[in-house]
Write a structure and sequence with these properties.
There is one protein chain. This protein is of the alpha/beta class. It has 14 helices and 15 strands. An 8-stranded mixed beta sheet has the order 3-2-1-4-5-6-14-15, with helices on both faces. It has a 7-stranded mixed beta sheet with strand order 9-8-7-10-11-13-12, sandwiched between helices. The chain is globular. The two termini are 19 Å apart.
Length: 370
């Protein structure tokens, strides 16, 4: 198969769909890999590194799409990239379609086969290709929040850890999954007073077993969510419903009543965000203020640590890329229910139920297209 890796064009996005090591795994199996020049510039890999791995370099994304059948990316295709897709293409990347009707419509119109990293499942019920970026984003959320709490960045001028004689900051984490548990780990390490809220009692017990008395674990309902959001200096939103738009758990009223100079970090912004006041931002202009509350809602947080994030992502995605290249998408997805759950758009149809419901499309079962 011919595999293409275009350079990411989203604002301050330096990650690459494949590293040279991943390219070598493909070329050793006699697949042809087309790579856009400069793809590794932001993560410490040269064009020569890709050539040495067996890739063919081309000057433009247009040439990548023209030559390749399987397109490997990191972030969802922007409008200029979507215009290059045809019904012959297989697109394998993060899509996050639920809050992005324009992208969904373009993908439907293209006729391409579009497989989303974030909805592939596993036997354990996890999302194996979302997990590595959730780990990165969870850890970064505390880093970003601590930065935003500084007075010069709009915050209240609070140090997360406090100092002897001064209390540490209160950090509230909404959702105790991969993002939330990694955020908790970082916040505890910095010495903050940490509370994690979730509706899943089994998950809360696991967090309690892991962290012990280092964090508070609280069952989430309207009363407890309101209490801990209003008491927080930093709130991290890490709620996920696979494929669907994130629920707006924190209301405008809660934001209005938060302490002046407090900070919210919405890690769920790729799926529309879980704060009523959230809107996607970029690394170039990451924050804005609503009712004296600093909002950090960067939609590609791991792009800021692109080398770490690319390597972590490739560790997870490469086995799936190898399978697609060896078997083709129909055979690969027919043989693996969990892989099939990643199919979001195919032959002009929305094939993931949660995505279809979020966008108001008719859902077409993936099996009927195989």
């Amino acid at each position: 198969m011919i595999i293409g890796i275009p350079k990411e064009i989203k604002n301050h996005e330096y990650r690459a769909g494949l590293t040279p090591a991943s390219v070598k795994e493909l070329t050793q199996r006699h697949h042809k890999v087309i790579v856009q020049e400069g793809i590794g510039q932001g993560i410490g890999y040269s064009n020569q590194d890709y050539r040495d791995a067996g890739a063919t370099l081309v000057a433009s994304a247009e040439e990548v799409f023209k030559q390749a059948t399987l397109i490997i990316k990191v972030k969802e295709p922007l409008a200029s990239e979507r215009a290059l897709l045809t019904k012959e293409h297989i697109l394998f990347t993060y899509l996050h379609l639920a809050p992005d009707k324009a992208q969904a419509q373009d993908l439907v119109n293209s006729g391409a086969t579009c497989i989303a990293y974030e909805t592939i499942t596993s036997d354990s019920g996890q999302l194996p290709l979302l997990t590595p970026m959730s780990e990165v984003a969870g850890r970064m959320s505390i880093q970003a929040g601590a930065y935003c709490l500084e007075k010069s960045h709009g915050g209240a001028g609070i140090l997360l850890a406090g100092v002897p004689g001064v209390a540490p900051a209160n950090v509230t984490i909404i959702g105790g999954g991969i993002v939330g548990s990694n955020a908790a780990r970082m916040a505890v390490g910095l010495g903050a007073n940490v509370t994690v809220l979730d509706t899943n009692l089994t998950l809360l017990r696991q967090l309690n077993h892991t962290f012990g008395s280092a964090i508070n674990v609280v069952h989430s309902n309207t009363a407890t969510l309101t209490e801990y959001v209003l008491n927080a200096d930093l709130v991290v939103g890490s709620v996920l419903i696979p494929g669907a738009a994130a629920p707006k758990l924190v209301t405008q009223e809660m934001i209005t009543n938060m302490k002046a100079g407090s900070v919210v970090v919405d890690v769920a912004i790729d799926q529309g965000g879980c704060f009523a006041t959230s809107k996607a931002t970029t690394h170039q202009d990451p924050t804005y203020i609503v009712d004296n509350v600093v909002h950090y809602c960067v939609a590609n947080m791991p792009g800021a640590v692109a080398r770490t994030a690319t390597q972590a992502l490739n560790n997870a995605t490469l086995p799936y890329v190898l399978t697609l290249a060896a078997k083709g998408w129909k055979k690969a997805l027919s043989e693996d229910t969990h892989f099939r759950n990643g199919l979001n758009v195919c032959s002009g149809h929305i094939t993931h139920k949660a995505v279809a419901e979020s966008l108001g499309y008719e859902h077409v079962n993936a099996e009927t297209l195989l």
